[in-house]
Amino acid sequence: MDTTDAPQIIELVNKSLPFTPYDAKWVPCSARLVTMGITAKAKGALSVYEVNGGDVNLVKEINTPYGIKCGTFGASDLGSRQIATGDFGGLVNIWDLETMKSVYNVQAHGAIINSIDGAGGMDTGNSQFGAPELVTGSRDGAVKVWDIRIKEPVLSLEPQEGQPIRDCWTVCFGNSYNDDERCIAAGYDNGDVKVFDLRTNQMKYETNVANGVTSIEFDKKDIEMNKMAVSTLESKFRLYDMRIFHPEDGYSHVATKAHKSTVWIARFLPQNREIFMTGGGNGGFNIYRYHNPLKREGTHQKDGLPVGNLGKVELLNSRVISTQPLVSLDWSPDREGLCALTCLDQTLRVSVVTRLHKY
Question: pTM of this prediction?
Fold first, then answer.
């Protein structure tokens, strides 16, 4: 890999934290970050840091009864910028970051909430459609959708009676391009990937990727489904073309090996959805570019029906920053290339990826 003219990765901040972080999110339209995790005494930690030159300063912090696993600003409006979190006790809270008090809480699950995502709020500053909603995935095997104006789930996808309970590791929203359309995607510890259409109330797609699914994300929430990234155990991630569906083969995908360890996370750059970054169990992150094919639609060799043509994934650069797994990654919605990462070595890191304008 020739990195002479590639995007460069510059670390701005390396901050040791007094707790184990599981997630970090940029506060939109600010230089602040929210970090979430668990303390040595198994309490939750929710901290707000402000980036100041080559350091981050603690602005506010609280401890909660349960460790916090995940968070999102996706269902919040720009005026309030309230973060929703899921914790080890199965609770969903929405926090006012000025008072550091919960303004919404519900016992969402009977076990740890592994993943949470939001839609209908500001997201990356673009106009969002539909109701402000959260989706949660839990170790209890359930995936639930919540309208933050009420405290009952508007949808609950649970294992059928007598069926084995599969740990849901990751969830996300997509296809939210008008007031009616919206879908959710979920990944499970046995490799199942499920995409559910909220408008028709039907399962849109199911497949199995043979390894536990650690993260799942659409390249953009507020457009028609385009690409979906699925990262897994055992050094692999897949990119799916979600525009063309074949009745037997489903959606076309391209699989890539990375990190020589678990690929814990994959996140698309908000300003350019052809660029994405992955974080690995080796403590490193890779930057990729997806090249679309000349023609996205092909013809199936057996039945002549339309099928998606696969593009190519190009590794632009990589860097190892820790001896411990990199477990969260959040691109800044306001500054192209600025990203926050957390590692299990109890650090928060802020980096900038340069030269992305070339792509």
Answer: 0.94
